[in-house]
Amino acid sequence: MPTRSRIGKSRSGVAEMAAEPARVAIVGTGNIGTDLMEKILRSDGLELAMFAGIDPNSAGIARAIEHGVDVSTEGIDGVLAMTRPVDFVFEATSASVHRANAGRYADAGLKVIDLTPAKLGPSVVPALGMPDLEAVPNVNMITCGGQATVPMVGAVSSVTPVHYAEIVSAISSLSAGPGTRQNIDEFTVTTAGALESVGGAESGKAIIILNPADPPVLMRNTVHCTIDPSADHDLIEAAVHKMAATVQGYVPGYRLVAGPEFDERGETVSIFLEVTGSADFLPDYAGNLDIMTAAAVAVGEQLAVFAQSAGGHA
Questions:
Q1: Nearest residue to 175 (alpha-carbon basis) of 140, 217, 208
Q2: CA distances (Å), 210 to each of 136, 200, 278, in order?
Q3: Which of 6, 64, 144, 284 could make an SS bond with 279 (beta carbons 3.0 to 4.6 A apart)?
Q4: How confident is the model over 106-137, as pLDDT tens digits?
Q5: Which residue, among 105, 88, 28, 98, has the nearest Cα to 64 in the 3D structure?
Q6: Catalytic site positions
């Protein structure tokens, strides 16, 4: 198994590290689950006890075996059958599978960090704070587009009301696996909801584009916010740059490309972002995977701290 090492402040960039790592499992051995595995194996705050899926021939299972990680091809059944229970589970399947699994996790008393857009629990963006998660059984990581753009909407709304937020996330089609493609409808609904509930917009809309360009393009995100013309542009610019630095604390490849830019009437602010992946599993164009899994690890490390301070399981 790879040697653990800290990355940045505490691998998450937003949470202190627990004295002892939390035991965790991943369900879902596709692109997201496998990329997540690589990051957890580098975390001081998390110990990967099980990597579970349903395809014995998946590249993720083979990679986990190479790393010396215990694997199961029985999906959730493999996790629930573990002799020593884990503290919590990362679900990296699909929205429909997570909806089917959620009740069984709850019956087993297992907390879940959900990397699908099923939205069965509160939406969380590490850069915008993670309060009271120790009491929440199901934490939703929104979507890749949500993790990239909601922080920017939150930055603008911290200065002035955001009447409407619209985001466009463009990702390489090669980085969109079967789970991502199955979740397209949920992506738009869940991301739009998070622009409002987490980002603070009065209303929101989300659009995703799968770009078939060859060579593959990096993940690019555009954020448009409708604001009051009297809003202080300097304060908005400062808030946006500060938020970009916060996200970079746990997603090093996150970059503010341009903006904030204001229209002539001062009613719209536009922000342009790019995410380069860390190439843990897929090449660096898969920033959409990287931002989701990095954010999930940040939340997991914070839950481990909560568990330690409470003297029990997360």
A1: 217
A2: 33, 27, 20
A3: 284
A4: 999 999 999 998 989 999 999 998 767 778 89
A5: 28
A6: 144
How is residue 270 written in tokens? 């536009």
Q: Is the pTM of this model over 0.70?
A: yes
Q: Which residues contact 2 (CB under 8 A, 6 or more apart)?
A: 41, 42, 67
DSSP conformation letters of 213-277: -SSPPPEEEEEEEEE-TTS-HHHHHHHHHHHHHHHHTT-TTEEEEEEEEE-TTS-EEEEEEEE--
Distance CA 245, CA 238 (A): 11
Shared domain check, 137 and 26: yes
The amino acid sitting at 225 is: C
CATH number for 33: 3.40.50.720
Is the bond preceding residue 131 a cis peptide, omega within 30 degrees?
no
- The residue assigned the tokens 């060579």 is 215
Could you tell me the CA-to-CA distances from 208 to 176, 183, 213 in Å, in that order?
Answer: 11, 11, 15
- Answer yes or no: is 271 within a domain: yes
If one counts the domains in the chain, the total is 2
What is the CATH classification number for the domain harbouring 206?
3.30.360.10
Same-domain pairing of 239 and 305: no
What is the per-residue pLDDT across 256-307, written as a single tens digit (0 to 9) for each?
999 899 999 999 999 999 999 998 888 999 999 999 999 999 999 988 887 6
- Total length of the chain: 314
